[in-house]
From TrEMBL:
Pfam families: adh_short. InterPro entries: NAD(P)-bd_dom_sf (IPR036291), Sc_DH/Rdtase_CS (IPR020904), SDR (IPR050259), SDR_fam (IPR002347). It comes from Allopusillimonas soli. GO terms for biological process: monocarboxylic acid metabolic process. Belongs to the short-chain dehydrogenases/reductases (SDR) family. This is SDR family oxidoreductase.
Length: 272
C-alpha cells in the first residue's frame, strides 16, 4: 500500500535503535524525510546513514527531549539547514524503564525505588512527550494538519508489578494524547497511541528478547510466548517492523478518521 508520505517530514524521538530505528527506516521507505532524534550522537548518525544508504533521506537530531529549549533549537536548526518548512509527523518513541537489580534482573518494588529514579522515568516519558508535542503543534496547526503517534507500554493500561512509576508514566501519555486529540481535531491533527508488550530488537544484548533467541534455545522465551496468543503461532515476540508498520499507517492520510485511539501491537497480550 502506498501511504503517500513522500514530501512529509517526520521527527522520531529515540530513533537510534530498536523500535525507534525500525520506525525511522519504515517512514523513510514510505517516502518521508526523517529527523532521527537520539540522545547518543553515534546512534542518531548511524541510523541516518543507514537510511541514506537505502535511498532515503534522513538527518540526525542529537538532543535530550527533556530539555525543551535545547531540543527545539536543534530541530529548528536542522529544518533550516535542510530547507524544510516544518514537521508533519511526530513519533514520540523515546522512553526509559526502571533500572533492574543486578541479581535476578527484576526492577524494585515502588517502595524500594529511590525518588530520583521516579523523576528520570516521569521526565523522559511524560515531560519529553509533552515537550515534543508543544514544539510541533503550532506548526501543524498553521499548516492545516499533522500526525502525532506516541508509543506506550501495555503496562500503562494494565499496571505491572515492579513497574509502578513506569506504568503511571505511560498511562499519563495515554490520557494526554486523548486530550490533545480532542483539542486539535478541528485542526486536522490526528493523535494516536500504539501500545506495546515485549519487543525483541538489536539493542538487547542477551536473554529472551535477544533477536537470536528462540523457544527452543531459551526457556524463558518459551514461557513468555504463552502470554501472547499470536506469538504462540508465530513462535516469536513482537519485532520493530511490526510496530513500524502500524506507526506508518497512523502517520498517513489512510488513517484520516482515526484519532484519540490506542492500537495494541502486543500479540493479544492486552485485549482491551
Amino acid at each position: 500500500m502506498d501511504l503517500r508520505l513522500k514530501g512529509k517530514v517526520a521527527l522520531v524521538t529515540g530513533g537510534g535503535q530498536g523500535v525507534g530505528r525500525g520506525i525511522c527506516r519504515m517512514l523513510a521507505q514510505e517516502g518521508a524525510l526523517v529527523l532521527v532524534n537520539d540522545l547518543f550522537e553515534q546512534r542518531a548518525h548511524s541510523v541516518s546513514d543507514e537510511i541514506r544508504s537505502e535511498g532515503g533521506t534522513a538527518f540526525p537530531v542529537v538532543a535530550n527531549i527533556i530539555e525543551q529549549v535545547a531540543m527545539e533549537s536543534v530541530v529548528n536548526k536542522c529544518l533550516a539547514q535542510a530547507g524544510l518548512g516544518g514537521i508533519d509527523i511526530l513519533v514520540n518513541n523515546a522512553g526509559i524503564v526502571p533500572e533492574r537489580r543486578e541479581k535476578g534482573g527484576i526492577p524494585p518494588n515502588f517502595l524500594d525505588m529511590p525518588p530520583e529514579d521516579w523523576k528520570k522515568i516521569v521526565d523522559l516519558n511524560v515531560y519529553g512527550t509533552m515537550n515534543c508535542c508543544r514544539m510541533v503543534l503550532p506548526g501543524m496547526r498553521e499548516k492545516g494538519g499533522g500526525k502525532i503517534v506516541s508509543i506506550m507500554s501495555e503496562a500503562g493500561r494494565l499496571g505491572e508489578a515492579h513497574l509502578a512509576v513506569y506504568s503511571g508514566a505511560k498511562a499519563a501519555i495515554l490520557g494526554f494524547s486523548k486530550a490533545i486529540a480532542r483539542e486539535h481535531g478541528r485542526d486536522r491533527i490526528n493523535v494516536n497511541v500504539v501500545a506495546l508488550g515485549a519487543v525483541s530488537h538489536e539493542g538487547i544484548k542477551n536473554g529472551a528478547l535477544h533477536p537470536d533467541s528462540t523457544p527452543e534455545n531459551n526457556e524463558r522465551l518459551a514461557k513468555m510466548l504463552k502470554a501472547y496468543p499470536i506469538a504462540r503461532g508465530l513462535k516469536r515476540l513482537c519485532r520493530p517492523e511490526d510496530v513500524a508498520n502500524t506507526v506508518a499507517f497512523l502517520s498517513s492520510d489512510r488513517s484520516a478518521f482515526i484519532t484519540g485511539e490506542t492500537i495494541s501491537v502486543s500479540g493479544g497480550f492486552a485485549m482491551i
